[in-house]
Amino acid sequence: MSTISQWRLRAAFAERLSRMYGQEVPAYTTLVDVSREVNEDVLRERGADAERLGSIGRVTAERHGAIRVGTPTELEQVARVFGALGMRPVGFYDLREAAASAVPVVSTAFRPVDGEELARNPFRVFTSMLTPADPRFFDADLRTRLEAFLTTRELFPPELLALADRAEADRELPANDAERFLQLAVGAFELSSEPVDKAWYGTLERISAVAADIGGVRSTHVNHLTPRVLDIDELYRRMTERGIEMIDTIQGPPAWKGPDVLLRQTSFRALAEPRSMRLADGSVERGALRVRFGEVEARGIALTRQGRALYDQLLGRVDEQAAGRPAEARGDIARTVWERHIPGSEEELDAAGLAYFTYRLVDDRPRDGSGPPATVGELVRQGWVRAEPVVYEDFLPRSAAGIFQSNLSGEGTRDNDQEGTAYDAARLSGAIGREVLDPFALYAAQRDASLAAVGERLGLTSL
Ligand code: OOG
Ligand code: NI
């Protein structure tokens, strides 16, 4: 019997999730359509240059999802479902710290890690876990009630987890098991029609709309599914022209004339979705919740630790200069700061050690009798090797917090006199039972592998 390989499972899952989400949230389909139009236009205008950070095939199919779970056990289970699809936890994001007000979660992103797998299908899921033990958000009584509620629910049926474990171990599934796995996996992220306990939801909502979305219901669901676009400023204009209400800003680096770096994101505002509510007397009424939104993103070159530190420092500088000025001024302020401090070309970013590149031997370099120089910089300058930018595959905590915030109905509360519970990548790794990988190490490994290959071909050991 035929088998379905891991990456085909991943691609099929992403596609089915997209179809399901399009039915649940029709504005998402508009976003995907407009993204496709923009991408086609950019490809027509810029030709091969438009594909410098990924083939148009990859970019068109590319999505990231966002989901939210309540406990370490649920996170461990979702890690098995994504493990089946060849996705590993990468990066630690503490949204409790990054936001101006309350988002009581810590997060990671599940994604493929090696270059070939990313090129086949880069599907990733930003995954957040609620932190009921954090006293800044939940007092002892609410924490107890919340944890008790969460332990009684089952997000992932045992049959799904068993199939997931097999797919992860074998890196494939027989076709009929693959079909069953996909049905159960997509079903686990569908919006439930079960009535929401109105009083309980409201109690959590006073702390944080995200806490209510996670801990106020008995199942999980996709929060958003994000297509990738090659010109996010143009997309923003076209969505606005269509009368779709977008959040105020594009998060991340400003629009500028230099290379795209890291990640720029924006979204349309969360829509009111009909949900039935159960009242204290047991009766059910029609209600609506506004939690799911439509996000879109543009991806740029991955920055090194040093490049990232510069990015964070510049964000701080923009904040200072933008304080007290009208919100519209921020874009121009940011552009000016950028142009002063970030090199305006790939070559300069590389030479300054600010961004990641891989290197490839130039086969048709004219021979001039000279031997290869011993440094990467000189090899590039003298035309022996060509540098290719590495695309950023991860997320930005500040943008994530901004995206969470701009779509929340209420501000929520955080008691800043309390000491927060410590959480870091190591503790999250313990909770999931798998190592949360360091994104910088993954990019560096890609670069180093390419250098080793070049070094071997040229007989250089120093690279
Ligand atoms: C996740 C928000 C963060 C991103 O792309 O930065 C995010 C959520 O709303 O659950 O998805
Ligand atoms: Ni997102």
From TrEMBL:
Q: Which cofactor does it need?
A: Fe(2+)
Report the InterPro entries cross-referenced here.
HGLS, YdcJ_bac-like
Domain of life, per UniProt, equals Bacteria
GO MF, one term, reads: dioxygenase activity
Q: Which SMART domains match?
A: DUF1338 (SM01150)
Q: Name one Pfam family in it.
A: HGLS
> What keywords would UniProt list here?
Dioxygenase, Iron, Oxidoreductase
EC number(s): the record gives: 1.13.11.93
Family per similarity comment? Belongs to the 2-oxoadipate dioxygenase/decarboxylase family.
What protein does this entry describe? Answer: 2-oxoadipate dioxygenase/decarboxylase
Q: Which organism is it from?
A: Streptomyces muensis
